[in-house]
Amino acid sequence: MLHLFKDIKKDLPASIVVFFVALPLCLGIALASGAPLFSGIIAGVVGGIVVGALSGSPLGVSGPAAGLAVIVLTAITTLGSWDTFLLAVVIAGVLQVAMGYAKMGVITYYFPVSVIKGMLTGIGLIIILKQIPHALGYTGGAEGLFSGGIAAISTLFTPAALIVAFVSMFILIFWENVLMKKSKLFMIIQGPLVVVFAGIGLSYIFINFFPALAFRPDQLVTIPVSTDFESFKALFTFPDFSQIGNYNVWIVAVTIAVIASIETLLSVEATDKLDPYKRKTPTNRELKAQGVGNVLSGLIGGLPITQVIVRSSANISFGGKTKMSAIIHGFFLMISAISIPVLLNMIPLAALACVLIVVGYKLAKPVVFKSMYKLGSAQFVPFAATVAGILATDLLKGIGIGMAFAIFYILRNNYRNAFQEIQQPNGNGEPYKIVLSEEVSFLNKSKVLNMLNQVPANSKVEIDGTKTQNLDYDVAEVIMDFKKNAKEKNIEVEFNYVDNIN
């Protein structure tokens, strides 16, 4: 046990920084998810302590993820209640554990990069769109806004929220683009945390000196305050197991399991690349750890959990060396939720919304669109289709649309690439020479047949399949039939191949 603390001099300072980064994000992501704000704290605690202990990732930090906020928001509405949604989180965790035992840690390799980037970009845009009303001070739904006419629209802009939003955005932009480049001190105390305290300060000033500007209760963070053990127990919500047969619960669970696993494995890959000690995280063990974390988080009222790159990179940047930094940050989150809920309840939602808008912008930067466009249509079209699909429908359908376009381009390229080389004779009695590609599938059947039909009578053709790793039987049959019937046209055919016909 003592060996876990041998690098505490490095892990403790890193854990403090990670805590400062995680606290506003846990609350903000819960806000973006339409979930109880305390559920974000629960997920952060479980992700830090439980997943941190079980994971094989030395530097990865887990907790609620912005990438799942859209799924959670939609799912709570679809399922009709928070406790029913928690059941889906528990089932998703069980599925992740099963995926780990099934050695599905390579799942991200089966999703094209264009679709993954489209997924993250689409999520970023939705987060921005969903948080703009909070940043402006409007907390009602779209129906109330449009049905209430001018009177309702006038409530969209709250002066106090606009002031907080302006100050928050200024801090976030100035902190990252100017101050963090000047001193490491400004990297330790991160911009989002400063925004939270600035929001608390402004909220206090409004209440005591400008009561007309004071925030309404629904414009502030609302975390239950516990005065004794019984009230503390009441902070936790338990899943509704009576909905175990609900078809929609299972759809949501599978969606969470797949998307959370993809986000985790992408974060693992990025974190391992940043690790100064170049350690490799066992991905199947990571899926099991995330699964256990989601089971526990769902059982006690927390959001779904993934490994998250923002907190993981902060951990690495500030010298974290072992998993203890992630575990300790989880304890800090737990202590803060118990000891300072009154202070946390002074945070304006507008401040958290600005933090999330910046998170969304980082996921959906214009440079991402530009870089994908430069890669050509085979990359840009699936990327753009994924983004548009997510915005127009939902996350899962959007990914499906993007995958359909990606598969189209894969099939098209496969169809085109039947031949590695084609040599036409130059009139000196040389044969036609056709060198097949390494992979020749049934999709290339038409291409090969058309090519062979162009070989004129009274000629010679050499078909080289020795470099082909896999030659589909349908294509081999086309070549054999051509060879059999070539005598009628006085065509001499030489077909060389290894035992590679499947």
Give the oligomer, counting copies of the same chain as homo and different chains as hetero: single chain
* Structural category: alpha/beta
**Strand percentage:** 5-15%
Q: Which blocks of ≥5 consecutive residues have pLDDT under 50?
A: 142-153
Number of DSSP helices? 22
Can you tell me the number of structural domains? 2
Shape descriptor reads elongated
Alpha-carbon Rg, integer: 28 Å
What is the ordering of alpha helices and beta strands? HHEHHHHHHHHHHHEHHHHHHHEEEHEEHE
Write the layout of secondary structure elements.
Layout: H1 8-33, H2 37-54, E1 61-63, H3 69-79, H4 82-101, H5 113-136, H6 142-147, H7 149-154, H8 159-182, H9 185-188, H10 191-209, H11 229-233, H12 247-274, H13 283-300, E2 306-308, H14 309-317, H15 324-339, H16 341-344, H17 349-363, H18 366-374, H19 377-392, H20 395-416, E3 419-423, E4 432-436, E5 439-440, H21 445-453, E6 460-465, E7 470-471, H22 473-485, E8 492-497
Parallel strand pairs: 4-6, 5-7, 6-8
Antiparallel strand pairs: 1-2, 3-4
Helix pairs in contact: 1-2, 1-3, 1-10, 1-14, 1-15, 1-17, 2-13, 2-15, 3-12, 4-12, 4-13, 5-17, 5-19, 5-20, 8-10, 8-17, 10-17, 12-13, 12-14, 18-19, 19-20, 21-22
Protein model, in words:
The protein is 64% helix and 6% strand. It has 502 residues and is α/β, with parallel strands linked by helices. The protein has a four-stranded mixed sheet with strand order 3-4-6-8, with helices on one face. The longest helix is centred in the middle third of the chain and has 28 residues, at 247-274. The protein has helices at residues 8-33, 37-54, 69-79, 82-101, 113-136, 142-147, 149-154, 159-182, 185-188, 191-209, 229-233, 247-274, 283-300, 309-317, 324-339, 341-344, 349-363, 366-374, 377-392, 395-416, 445-453, 473-485; strands at residues 61-63, 306-308, 419-423, 432-436, 439-440, 460-465, 470-471, 492-497. It has two domains: 2-364, no CATH class; 419-497, Transcription Regulator spoIIAA (2-Layer Sandwich).
